[in-house]
Amino acid sequence: MSTINKILVIGAGIAGPAVCYWLRRFGFSPVLIEKFANIRKEGQALDFRGVAIDIVKGMNIYEKMCNMHKQLEVGRYVDTEGNTLHEERGERFCFRQGEDVEIARGDFAEILTGAIEGIPCHFNQVIDSIKQSDDDVKVQFNDGRVEHYDLVIGADGIYSTTRGMVFDKDEYKLVNLGVCFGVFSILNYLNLSHTEVQCEANQKLISIWSHKNPKMAEVAFVFRTQNVLNNIRNKNEQQQLLRDAFQDFGWEASKILELMTGSDDFYFDSATQVKMKSWTKGRVALLGDAGYSASPLSGQGNYLALVGAYIFAGELKKADGNYTRAFSRYNELLHPLVEACHKLGVLVSESFLVPDEVSKEVAEERSNKILQEVKIVSNMISLPEYE
Predict the structure, then answer these.
(1) Which of 90, 92, 212, 267 is an S-S bond match for 42, by CB 3.0 to 4.6 Å?
(2) Model confidence over 109-145: pLDDT tens digits?
């Protein structure tokens, strides 16, 4: 009988709730904590392709996702004067095929939360220290409380506190791809309907779309920069960076920046990859962006989180709780996929944000290349059967 049962999962983004789902299903007792007061719903829309579709079907949430997916009919490229350069079908524009689904991050968070109902989830929880022994992991919270767990999983994102507490600085590397982005909602003043409009020039890009609530539109600002901006966490400073970067861009930039101030779901970050040789140390493991972020540009963050969560929990079950064996298999099985996703992230980073405006030929060549690579990466791993 396994002696591993009580497992602390840190971070209630995508990877954390996903691994909680599979841990419970495979007979373990996870506890989920989150430093914020509630589930974060802002951020980029999420793509689900290939093997990720198999996983969400196995979680019995695929149909719910389809009912809330991003229904895009047309993708349109415009120049900085607002003239249409060319259009594409919505599916191709978003690099989707077949059963692929794109869904707002907030909608998926809501679905995922429902799938782990009954699992203890505590908000406003911050950890001060993690100390390991041969028998367990001692976790001290900032309110002075001390708890002991059999295992700890850090699923707390690119800037993982867990990683910083457990791993030495020479055991991980954060690689900035030289791209920053801001995502937020505004009033749909362009009256878009199931349409996304994209303007790309001078190594900058603005994308705006509306597909669900006709009164609202989602916006993404993306720009190339040589400065590392990871340490700028203040919302006002982040918004000022966007104003400075896009003040002379043209098209609808000025109006969108004006409306940005009133947005209540603003999210800003840099395109950063996390590279590590091992995502486990002692009784602690990293999952999702905390261990192997491929950058948001790759579109594979939730894919890696879901696959990683399934394999981690499955290998722990398969090893009958022998965590050292399970951790070894987790690293072994996932590394080829992570490396492929990292390469895809670099490819997308280099393909977008062109110096000049995007011609039809450039857009088509880019779409074909990225679609091909996305299809390969999304189906390159065969999921083990654990049930």
Answers:
(1) 267
(2) 889 999 999 999 999 999 999 999 999 999 999 999 9
Q: How many CA atoms lie within 13 A of 116 on its CB side?
A: 28
Q: Which residues pair with 32 in a beta bridge?
A: 9, 121
Task: List the chain residues with pLDDT less than 50.
Answer: 1
Which of these, 162, 144, 161, lies nearest to 152 by C-alpha position? 162
Architecture of domain 6-175+272-378: 3-Layer(bba) Sandwich (3.50)
Domain-by-domain residue ranges, the chain? Answer: 6-175+272-378
| Lateral strand order in the sheet of 137-141 | 127-132, 137-141, 146-149
pLDDT at 1: 37
* Tens-place pLDDT, residues 194-216: 889 999 988 999 999 987 788 99
Question: Under a CB-based contact definition with an 8 Å cutoff, are residues 80 and 359 in contact?
Answer: no
Q: What would the two tokens of residue 202 be?
A: 């001078």
Tokens of 272: 């950063």
3-state SS, residue 220: strand
Distance CA 368, CA 6 (A): 47
The rounded Cα 337 to chain-centroid distance in angstroms is 16
Say if CB 150 and CB 278 are below 8 A apart: no
- Give percent of the chain with pLDDT exceeding 90: 65
Structure tokens at 231: 């340490």
